[in-house]
Description:
Helix 1 (about 1-10) packs antiparallel against helix 2 (about 25-50), helix 1 (about 1-10) crosses helix 4 and helix 3 packs antiparallel against helix 4 (about 70-95).
Amino acid sequence: MIIFVLISLGSTINWTAKQENPPPVDLVLISLCFGLSIATLVQCFGHISGAHINPAVTVAMVATRKLSLAKGVFYLLAQCLGAVVGAAILYGVTPASVRGGMGVTS
Length: 106
């Protein structure tokens, strides 16, 4: 989740937000970043975790009993912790002048 959050949320930053007439956020670019980052992470780590990149996948696997409850809880905790750490890293490396628009798509 750390890599996913860094790539995906990093793509939503409007680096020109402080300009007088900033260009609109490119939703196609953001959508491609989200989709391609998921596809890349599934391809890279699918054989390790069964492609549990999103907590919704983990919940679905637990609900259909393809994953034990104990393992599902562990995966969910790891995913949430990874997302928070990824967001914190992104916040730390993003200049203060553009942080106000971080994660905002419109």
